[in-house]
Amino acid sequence: MPQPSSLTKGERTRQTIIDAAHTLIVEQGYAGTSMRQISERAGLALGGIYNHFPNKEAIFVEVIISKHPFHQVLPLLQAAPGDTVEEFVRNAAKRMIAELGRRPDFIKLIFVELVEFEGRDLPRMFQVIFPQVLPLVQRFQSHEGELRPIDPFILFRAFLGLFISYYMTELLLAGIPAALKPENSFDSFVEIFLHGVIAAKDN
Amino acid sequence: MPQPSSLTKGERTRQTIIDAAHTLIVEQGYAGTSMRQISERAGLALGGIYNHFPNKEAIFVEVIISKHPFHQVLPLLQAAPGDTVEEFVRNAAKRMIAELGRRPDFIKLIFVELVEFEGRDLPRMFQVIFPQVLPLVQRFQSHEGELRPIDPFILFRAFLGLFISYYMTELLLAGIPAALKPENSFDSFVEIFLHGVIAAKDN
DNA sequence: CCTACCGATCGGTAGG
DNA sequence: CCTACCGATCGGTAGG
């Protein structure tokens, strides 16, 4: 959400173009979205776009970088409370799944990046993202005592994977009769993960 | 892999078109692939395609149905040996990860279906797939004694999710310095899953 | 199954 | 920032 008041007119127009492109690309993919559609949605003439971006791909690169899920997701995870790993994971999971429900575009953006751009921008993305990942890895690390011996980076990766696997299988199994789908599936996913990583209690 | 000798000429041409479209769509997406590219790769004139398919979308529907990862993956899982859940999971995981390495197109096909077709074909897909899923669910069910109390369908879903989460995070974290990536990450994923689902032993 | 074509739309630009 | 345009390419078809 841009704050028009703090931006110059040119910056506002630029942001409008990025927002328009983001919406369309998530709905139709990159190749399926035309510069004319973007210009219409942004409320200017086709030629006007080229005052702000040299070409179509440059718009996408801006979209993928500024709208990347990690920007919302990582701060969300960092802010999750919890004095033990178990509490933290439960809280973080609850927040994540709520956010994913609110933003179905998250996965689609990643798909477009992976298929239509073959992940070309991922290395650059990661430079921006990495400083935010580190404190999460360390948060697991500082609770080593509660955990089975697992490399903390793998732990973080499996933690991320928990959401990805839930969300992807949700999409993939969309065709399944609802009667077969147990309620609270996500809670079960969280329990499996917790049992998988937390050391057996001594008592 | 088609067997030309057992097909009529028309069927062979049709298959050639599907194969060509599959390759191109996985590389460039659906909207990014033109009918002319498909015709060139299949070795016939543009107009010739329309003797076999009414339009572009019909080709994709055939591609997604006949090349869907589940066709390779489910038989692979079913054939995995193992008298206990633990053995089965380890064997199945080994086979799956080898197959995923061999067929990077798997995930891309799913992405195209999900983004460019909004999962429209998934319900129909699932009708074809479901009979193959059932025996796998039952296989978990028949070893209930070894497992924590988890709905067998969720168990299957989490099992599928194990591969998806490993593979997706592998792609997503592609930008990361290799020095930070622990070796044998996949084995760790399998261990976390096993600890998550297998009941604590009595001894 | 090919040739030759259709109208529509594409990304991008010149010129103001 | 818009108007008017460029050549190229798109999905699809008629006619043989």
What distance separates the N and C termini of chain A?
50 Å
Low-confidence runs of chain A: none
Order of helices and strands of chain A: HHHHHHHHHH
CATH C-level class of the largest domain in chain A: Mainly Alpha
The tally of strands of chain A reads: 0
Largest sheet of chain A: none
State the oligomer: homodimer
What average pLDDT do the residues of chain A reach? 91
> Which strand-content bin applies to the residues of chain A?
under 5%
Shape of chain A: elongated
Structural class of chain A: mainly alpha
CATH architectural grouping of the largest domain in chain A: Orthogonal Bundle
- Our count of helices of chain A gives 10
Helical amount among residues of chain A, as a percent range? Answer: 55-70%
At CATH level 3, the topology of the largest domain in chain A is Tetracycline Repressor, domain 2
Give the tally of structural domains of chain A: 2
* Largest interface, C-beta closer than 8 angstroms, per-chain residues: A-B, 56 and 56 residues
Radius of gyration of chain A: 20 Å
